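$ ./design --mode recover --in tokens.txt
reading tokens...
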């Protein structure tokens, strides 16, 4: 071997020559395997990429739950939305006018109740009709 690390095959013994040749073959295989892995990874990234060039849509606002259908009746809304934070009995035990129920539901939305405007109207109508003074 000279100062640059190159091997002079004329000065090697037959056993050393076989070892050098074996190392060269292993290096060649290692490079081929590394290239194959890089190509496979690139193909996987391309295949898993988005099919469209359009950006993904931002999530809807917190007052409009996505994927949920509008609850058709106030009783369901009372049980599913209001009872997340407190018992539905809390509303059932109250006695308020429609305007007072509207103010209460608006305040609860401010505290994080998940209701759309249409659901709010349904709920306030239900509360005013069933729990009025």
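writing sequence...
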């Amino acid at each position: 071997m000279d100062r640059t690390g190159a091997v002079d095959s004329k000065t090697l013994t037959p056993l050393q020559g076989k070892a050098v040749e074996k190392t060269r073959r292993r290096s060649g295989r290692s490079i081929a395997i590394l290239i194959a892995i890089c190509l496979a990874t690139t193909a996987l990234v391309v295949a898993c990429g988005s099919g469209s060039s359009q950006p993904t849509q931002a999530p809807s606002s917190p007052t409009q739950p996505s994927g949920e259908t509008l609850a058709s009746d106030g009783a369901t809304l009372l049980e599913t939305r209001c009872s997340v934070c407190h018992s539905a009995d809390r509303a059932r035990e109250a006695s308020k006018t429609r305007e007072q129920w509207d103010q209460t539901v608006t305040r609860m939305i401010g505290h994080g109740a998940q209701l759309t405007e249409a659901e709010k109207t349904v709920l306030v109508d239900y509360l005013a009709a069933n729990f009025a003074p």
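exit 0
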